[in-house]
């Protein structure tokens, strides 16, 4: 290892980064997670505002068109974003081990993979856009608007990958604040574009899609500028830029299983949305409104999990296995406090939340969406356990193991789609997420405990042999 290279780019000279291998696990996790959570809440708030604008000023049909393909975007973007998060795990581990030359080599090779992913996925997605919408039983009366919106989302894939890869690399070094700031700017930019394109120019669903595409490009540009100016520790130099087959393999072994985990989960979501779409446009609109609010609340659980991936990655890199267990229990306590907060908001006010999306004449949409929110809310602690354990396993470097929890989710949602939705109609749709969370936890709880015991035993052996 080149000591001169490491000294030149030592993160101790850089601002914004956090070493999570020391200090209180709870404080470290919260310090990292809070900006992350605020950023995603802001992002989801934009999604809510966008749906409100579309539902109230364009119509219920347009709201259904925007939401008809949400599970498809979850499938494709889940793979892209999950892969980017996985590519950052070796970076976090190298940072925890203070091997900065190795860290920058991982960065260089992760960028190579990201470029290939962006090109291939964008071309395939755009080419099969119509077939994808037919696959999920998109109602004929909203098909054209749904195609327009989905095609524009596919065109934004390179920018989305660029943002998520750069943001994941920044977070791998313990800096979650700046990606949050960039989400603020891009979300405000998106809302401003919505106002201009939908209200000012009357572009309808086309305007909503164009606004999202341009905002994604803006957020990726902000990340790039920040890394070039303030986080030069991530910029490879000299031989660190070289193609490295071994590092490519390690990156793929971490990133692809994480991406596939989201995609496998999304197969079940697509099955569920397809079953829901077959119920008719009213139920598509109900599902769209409920999912927008659901993500606003559940993104907190997701991002506590993201914080755990970085926390576990840094600590396993530093050989601090005992801190991993402490961090997981602290994260579970934080999650339960947040669950109580969600219950106090969702149970009494779900109907009022749903009335933001449609006018008073669409009471059926409000009733269905509020039912979806309340049923899901009862099971939020199970979702919290799922995200914390899944991301912890990924941060420890066992993405293949965590991927199996996605398989459990997929099987559960497919079962709900095939049996509960035909029997219970929209109530069956409401049970899709809770059943999937239960199935994933049945696998994750024993898997994490056995993995932790294995790593602790291995760590003891390594200490004895030193």
Automatic annotation (TrEMBL):
Keywords: Cell membrane, Membrane, Transmembrane, Transmembrane helix, Transport
Main location: membrane
CDD domains assigned: MATE_yoeA_like
Membrane topology: Multi-pass membrane protein
Annotated TM spans: 20-41, 113-134, 146-167, 179-199, 205-227, 248-273, 293-311, 331-350, 378-398, 410-429, 435-452
Family annotation (InterPro entries): MATE_fam, MdtK-like, Membrane_Transporter-Flippase
Pfam families reported in the protein's UniProt record: MatE
Annotated compartments: Cell membrane
Organism superkingdom: Bacteria
Protein name: MATE family efflux transporter
Organism in which the protein naturally occurs: Hallella faecis
């Amino acid at each position: 290892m080149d000591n001169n290279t490491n000294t030149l780019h030592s993160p101790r000279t850089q601002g914004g980064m956090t070493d999570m291998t020391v200090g209180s696990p709870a404080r470290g996790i919260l310090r990292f997670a809070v900006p992350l959570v605020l950023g995603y809440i802001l992002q989801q708030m934009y999604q809510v505002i966008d749906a409100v604008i579309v539902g109230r000023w364009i119509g219920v049909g347009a709201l259904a068109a925007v939401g008809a393909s949400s599970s498809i975007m979850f499938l494709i973007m889940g793979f892209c974003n999950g892969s980017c998060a996985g590519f950052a795990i070796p970076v976090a581990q190298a940072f925890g081990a203070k091997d900065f030359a190795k860290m920058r080599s991982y960065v260089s090779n992760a960028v190579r993979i990201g470029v290939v992913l962006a090109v291939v996925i964008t071309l395939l997605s755009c080419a099969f856009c119509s077939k994808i919408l037919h696959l999920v039983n998109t109602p004929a009366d909203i098909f054209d608007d749904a195609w327009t919106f989905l095609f524009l989302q596919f065109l934004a894939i390179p920018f989305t990958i660029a943002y998520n890869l750069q943001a994941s690399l920044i977070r791998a070094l313990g800096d979650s604040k700046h990606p949050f700031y960039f989400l603020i700017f891009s979300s405000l930019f998106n809302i401003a574009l919505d106002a201009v394109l939908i209200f000012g120019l009357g572009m309808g669903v086309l305007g909503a899609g164009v606004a999202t595409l341009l905002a994604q490009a803006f957020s990726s540009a902000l990340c790039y500028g920040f890394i070039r100016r303030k986080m030069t520790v991530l910029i490879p130099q000299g031989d660190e830029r070289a193609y490295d087959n071994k590092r490519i393999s390690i990156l793929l072994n971490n990133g692809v299983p994480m991406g596939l985990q989201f995609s496998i989960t999304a197969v079940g979501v697509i099955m569920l949305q397809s079953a829901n779409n077959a119920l008719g446009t009213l139920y598509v609109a109900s599902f769209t409104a409920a999912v927008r609010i659901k993500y606003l609340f559940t993104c907190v659980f997701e991002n506590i999990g993201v914080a755990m991936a970085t926390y576990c990655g840094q600590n396993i890199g530093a050989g601090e296995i005992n801190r991993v267990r402490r961090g997981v229990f602290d994260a579970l306590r934080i999650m339960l406090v947040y669950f109580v907060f969600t219950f106090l908001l969702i149970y009494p006010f779900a109907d009022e939340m749903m009335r933001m999306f449609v006018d008073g004449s669409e009471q059926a949409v409000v009733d269905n969406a509020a039912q979806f929110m309340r049923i899901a809310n009862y099971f939020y602690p199970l979702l919290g356990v799922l995200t914390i354990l899944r991301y912890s396993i990924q941060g420890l470097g066992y993405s293949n193991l965590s991927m199996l929890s996605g398989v459990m989710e997929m099987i559960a949602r497919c079962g709900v789609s095939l049996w509960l939705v035909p029997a219970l109609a929209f109530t069956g749709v409401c049970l899709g997420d809770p059943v999937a969370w239960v199935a994933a936890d049945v696998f994750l709880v024993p898997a994490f405990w056995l993995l932790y015991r294995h790593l602790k035993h291995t760590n003891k052996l390594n200490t004895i042999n030193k």
